[in-house]
Structure formats: structure tokens, C-alpha cells
Amino acid sequence: MKILIINGSPKGKRSNSLKLTNSFAEGYKITTEQRGEQADIEELDLSKLNIGACRGCFACWKNTPGSCCIKDDMSAILPKLLEADLILWSFPLYYFNVPGILKNLIDRQLPMNLPFMSQNDSGYGSGSHDSRYEKKATRNVIISTCGFYSAKDNYDSVINMFDHFLGKGNYEKIFCGQGELFSIKELSSRTDEYLDYVKKAGSEYAVGSISAETQKHLQTLLYPKEVFERMADASWGINKETGEKDSKDLSFTKQMATLYNLKAYDGKDRVLEINYTDLGTTYQIFLGKDGSKVYTDNSLKTTTRIDTPFEVWAAISRGEMEGAEALGKKLYKVSGDFSLMMNWDKFFGVSGLVEGSEGTEAGSSDGKNDNSSKSLKNPSMTTMLIPWITFWVAVGINPGIGSIIAMAVCALVPLIMRKHRLIIWDQLSIAAVAILSGIANITGNGDLTTNAGYLVFGAFWLCSCLTKMPLCAAYVKYSYGGDKADRNPIFMRANYILAIIWGVLYLLTAVWTYLLHKIGVGTALIIINNIVPAVMGIFTGWFVKWYPAWKARGN
After folding, report:
1. Which of 61, 230, 363, 514 is most buried, judged by most C-beta within 10 A?
2. How, if at all, do strands 40-45 and 2-7 pair?
3. Between the CA of residue 404 and those of 384, 386, 391, 411, what are the distances in Å?
4. 164 Cβ neighbours under 8 A, 6+ residues apart
5. pLDDT digit string (tens) for 66-100?
6. Alpha-carbon torsion (74, 79, 82, 88), positive or negative
7. Do 189 and 350 contact (CB within 8 A), yes or no?
8. Distance between CA atoms of 18 and 179, rounded to whole angstroms?
9. CA separation (Å) from 212 to 117, 363, 453?
10. Helices 310-317 and 248-257: crossing angle, nearest 10°?
């Protein structure tokens, strides 16, 4: 299997269209080789080749049949076009057609045809010339990006041209608007997502055609029209009103402001002030119901302020540095309303912007939908708590019957929570409760075993503080970036503190439960052992909001 990539971009390896093409080729190659066939990829970088313009002399038809009189790199390319099993035509849209260097290659294919008129079987046009050579069943895919918000209605002349020499309906096409975004690292989370679908398209094409579901994703705009056009205007670094050149940091701030998600507006106007400490410049971004606007005169009342070196904030935006990790290392500071930082992805994230922003970037193909299996849900603290709560309540009321109920629940929990991944604390809790329930059933002493349960549960919390991940963090980290939270010092410290407090609380619970049992104050015990965890839960909710904001101020 020979795959030929024709890179028709004057930018060569820096081509945004080539990024899509390489993803498609990778998916095609992997699937082909999984089916037991070797796939070799060759790229022709036209920006580095010498391919002159056709002279229209017809020497390749009259004087030297099948051979062009121009002696340049095209003579080595013609055999490659004939030998390829798959040709990927990769290029950006230049003035509503292909770049000049690619048009030269297309024009110079003339020696591959006979001069005599023939019946047109391409389904397009009114005349044709038969091929000089016996061609194999070569497949062709056109992959291109353009600088408009959508590819729709911008590729008419391109499609007409390829219909003429490849035949209408004889090739696949992937046209993507907003192509310049693929070179912006700050937006890689969105563009990488799109490239994954292009890779999937290549994989599907290797065994047939691109599925309708994948085509739908390929036709989805990277960003809505108004967001993209604001980003594109800001990217030039030129003030739209005055024509004057913006500084690098102002242009960057304006582009960041364009990512504001209007759907996140909750009735509260916000003013985000960014002070680039190394440059001595400060800008304010107003976030309101009608959108965002950048102010340079600091005339607004700030609600949230970020003090940061410019390169630190730029690195965070490019994904080279985790924002929360950088904050924990005191590389920047935040003051004022910290809720904006806690909900940053909501206000400036990609998902809210692209939702419902489907366009018609390319033609669709029939195919099968992908039925990939769903992975298990993230671990849930409920899995750990169900056995303990059942044990304390049931065994506390009746050691005999209660212990049987608790053991039954331990057996059923893995089934009840089968859609969630179980972690070590789930497994240890089920084992501990089962053992304690067995002891309660044998001894008939509910007070002793429930008290021992408080000690064991408290020990779990405290022992987890000796590991890399405290107990509570193992469950809640998925709401704070998943494994990225492991590198977030503020998140980790907050959870270590909470794990210690919860551990000490349950050790103390064991102490006062024992003492109250000795003096026979059962009613007070029931009230205390229910009120204290509830109060601790309220404290936890407050602490996880207060502590990050307190640390963000540089404390």
C-alpha cells in the first residue's frame, strides 16, 4: 500500500492543512497495518521542489509523447502519481482555489493523457482525454483548510476542478474553516479534538468510507462565527478603529477576551483585571450579558485581579503549564472574587463555545456509526460510605440482625456501584465492615464493634495522609482536572488538611462514643454522632472555597 501526500502549501511543514492530512494518514496507516498490509507514506513537499508552469506547447503529445520538454522535478513525480494506491491532496485555500505551486503540478499532469478526444465518463464537463497509461484504482482524498469561519461555499472552484480530472464522486474531501487556529498553541485543546476526528476518518476510510457520525464532527465549526471572527481580527495585532499596532500583551489579552462564553453569564457583571507584572501593563476585561470588552484605561471597578508575569500567563494559555499548579507554586497571584478562577473553564472554556455550533464544512458520506464501548464512571465516595453507614446504623440498633444486613450490603455494593471504578479505599471499607460485622454477629456486642468502626474509619483517613493521594482527593480530583489535580499544590494541601480533620474527628467520635456509652447517655450519642459529621460537611464545603482563594492571594 503506497500512500502519497502532495503537500501543496507554500508553508511546507508549517502548513495547517498538513496537520489534518498527517492525522488522516496516520489513522489510515494504523488500520491498514492492523489488517495485515504494509502501508508506506511518502510526502511531496512542493515548496521545496522545482515544478515549472506548463508552457502549453503540447510537446508531450506531439514531439515526445508522454514526456514533458521541461526538465525539472515533475519528471520524477509522474511515476509516483501512477504507482500510488492513495493520494492525499493537501493544501490551503488561496484566493478561492489551490496555491500556485499545486496548480503547476496539476497542469503538468498533461503527459499522462492521450491527445485524442474521447467520451467524457467523469460525470463532469463536456470533453475528455483517455489516460496514456493503464491506471490502478487509485483513491483520492482532498484535505484543505481556509481562513474563513466556515468552508461552506468557498470551495466551489476547487471542487469543479477536481471533478474534471478525478471524476465527480470519485474522491473524498475534508474542508475545514478557521484553519489558522491549528497553529495557535493556546487553542490546542479544541484543535487536537478535531484532529482526532480526522484521524478517525482516516481509519474508517481504510476499510470503506467515512461514517456519517464522523462527518458530522468534521463539519462542526471549531468556534462559532462571531467568536472566530473576533479572534481573527484580534490576532493581527492592529487596532480595528485606529489602524495602530497593538502591543503583544494587549493583542494577547484581546484574543483571550474573545473566548468569553456568553452562556456562562449568571446575571452578574464581572471585571477581570490582569496585571502583567514584568511589563508594567494592566488591562481590564469586562464580562457581561452582551459579551466581553477590553479596557486599557483601568476605569472599571475590578472584581477579580490577576498579578502575573506575561510569559507565565501565556504559557498557561498554551497548555505548557497547568494554571492551578502555577498558582500553587506562587508564580502568579489572584485577589478579589475567586469564583471566576474556580469556574474558568465555564467562562473561557471550549466546550461551552462549540456546543451547537455545527456548520457544513464538507460533504457527508454514508457509513456506520461508531459503537465504541463506554468506560466506567469515575470513583464515587458513595461506594465507600454505604457499607460504613449501614454498619453503624444497623449494628447499632441490633447487633445480630444488623450485622447480617451490613454483610449483605458489603456483598451487594460492588454490584450496585458496578458502573463506577472501585479504588483501594472502597475495597478496604468493604473488607473492614464485613470483618467488623462478623465480629458483631459472633459476640453480640454492637457498641464495641461500632466504636471499633469509628477507629478504623478514622485510621483510613489519617493513613491516607502518608500516601501521595489523601483519601478525599482520590474521589474529588475528577472535578478538578482528574490526574492534573495531582500536580496542583493548593488542591493537594487542602485535601491533606481535610483528611487529617476527618480522621481526627472519627478518632474523637470513638472516644466520646465510648465515654457516653459508659455513663449510659444513648440519646445524646445518637444526636451528637449525626450532628457532628453534618457540621463537618458544612465546614468542608466552606473550606474548599475559602482555602484556594486564601492561597491564591499569596498567603
Report:
1. 230
2. parallel
3. 18, 15, 10, 11
4. 122, 124, 125
5. 899 999 999 999 999 999 999 999 999 999 999 99
6. negative
7. yes
8. 11
9. 39, 10, 55
10. 40
Joined together, the cell numbers standing for residue 540 give 468542608
pLDDT, residue 369, reads 39
- Could you tell me which of 305, 181, 289, 311 has the C-alpha nearest to residue 234? 181
Q: Are 313 and 224 in contact (CB under 8 A)?
A: no
Cα 436 to Cα 440: distance, rounded to the nearest angstrom: 6
Q: Which residues lie below 8 Å from residue 194, measured CB to CB, with a gap of 6+?
A: 176, 217, 218, 222
- Give the pLDDT confidence score for residue 226 in this predicted structure: 81
- Are 465 and 492 spatial neighbours (Cβ–Cβ below 8 Å)? no
DSSP state of 370: P
pTM of the model: 0.65
Q: Are 220 and 359 in contact (CB under 8 A)?
A: yes
Confidence at 308, pLDDT banded by 50, 70, 90: very high
**Cell triple for 108:** 503538468
Proportion of the chain in helix, strand, coil states, percent, rounded to 5: 55, 15, 30
Q: How far apart are CA 223 and CA 203, in angstroms?
A: 25
- Condensed to tens digits (0 to 9), the pLDDT of residues 122-179 reads 666 677 788 888 777 899 999 999 999 899 999 999 999 999 888 888 899 999 999 9
Q: In angstroms, rounded to a whole number, what is the distance separating the alpha carbons of residues 125 and 139?
A: 21
* DSSP states of 70-123: S-STHHHHHHHHHH-SEEEEEEE-BTTB--HHHHHHHHTTGGGEEEEEE---SS
123-to-160, 162, 350 alpha-carbon distances in Å: 11, 12, 42
What pLDDT was estimated at residue 349?
66
pLDDT at 97: 93
DSSP state of 13: G
- Taking all residues of the chain, what is their mean pLDDT, rounded to a whole number? 88
Residue 523: its pLDDT value, please?
63
- Residues 219-269 have pLDDT tens digits of 998 888 888 888 787 777 787 777 788 899 999 999 889 888 888 889 999
At 169, give phi and psi (nearest 5°): 80, 5
Q: Which of 77, 91, 94 is nearest to 9 (CA)?
A: 91
Bridging pattern class, strands 139-145 and 86-92: parallel
Torsion angle of the four alpha carbons 313, 315, 320, 325, in this order, in degrees rounded to the nearest 10:
-30
Residue type for 20, please? L
First to last CA, the chain: 62
Which residue bears the cell 447517655?
A: 521
Between strands 40-45 and 86-92, the pairing is unpaired
The Cα–Cα gap between 32 and 38 comes to: 7
Q: How much is the average pLDDT of 386-390?
A: 94
Alpha carbon distance 549, 555 (integer Å): 9
Q: Tell me if residue 147 falls in helix, strand or coil.
A: coil
Which amino acid belongs to residue 291? G
